[in-house]
Amino acid sequence: MSHPQTAFAPLPSGIAALPHLGVIRAAGEEAAKFLHGQLTQDFLLLADGQARLAALCTAKGRMQASFVGIKTASDEVLLVTPADLLASTLKRLSMFVLRAKVKLTDASADVLLRGLAGPLAAGGGEAAAPWQVRQEGAAHIVTLYPAGSQPRALWIAPAGTALPEGPELPAAAWRLGEVRSGIADITQPIAEAFVPQMLNYESVGGVNFKKGCYPGQEVVARSQFRGTLKRRGYLVRAHASDAPLAAGQEVFVPGDEQPVGTVAQAAQAPEGHWEAIVSMQTSASEAPQLHAGSPDGARLVLQPLPYALLEDI
Q: What is the per-residue pLDDT across 177-186, written as a single tens digit (0 to 9) for each?
């Protein structure tokens, strides 16, 4: 069925602090090789100064963590990841270092992170394709998926680097842009809940199907090539402004006590309503109504994804 779509007010431009993110540093001559064997992305083919989206999966293919990985030098990769899972992610990755020539550390205190939204993200010209990197002095600027028509980028630099100049962007506006980009971060409430395709990671450059083995690879590949995937990521808007949404919240169709999906990431808009990325059964996208929290909870309205799904390309 067709769902009503909402014309959203443009998000403000500016520079946002990102306290909800942290950084893991992989340093050493085998840094890229080690990450190549652990994550969904091909870090061996990543040239210096390039970035990619990636995930760490369990043996069953469920995402434990997500990253924007930036290869800042031939012997260093920085992994930007949600702070609430950083310690456990670092511990798990460290278990597999063994004799590899790589050292993993929490570099959050050694690195400055900022989010750029609007003209600053595009560098004054046309916005680059997602995951492309440009350098401005000591800073690497990674182009992210846009929030609607608004360019977005991640600014990352060593501590002590002069911050970019521009208007301050409220944290709430940045978080809303994250949701509108259609790419959910893996945070504590949804850790180990989804294989990458359940959040469309294969459609936004987060999975390389040609690379070698990594934990969960067989499950991820089978989901892609055997047509076994029955869940996808969707954008939704809560119908009522007084209905907050949160990661981990279940999604229902009326009259069914069994949930059909889960909220992966949510944020409140300046107008008062909530928006979210939900991972949901593909069949539920055709339901006449969707509700958050319970079969008669806040009504959710589907919105168009800002990118094409891989199967549609």
A: 999 999 999 9
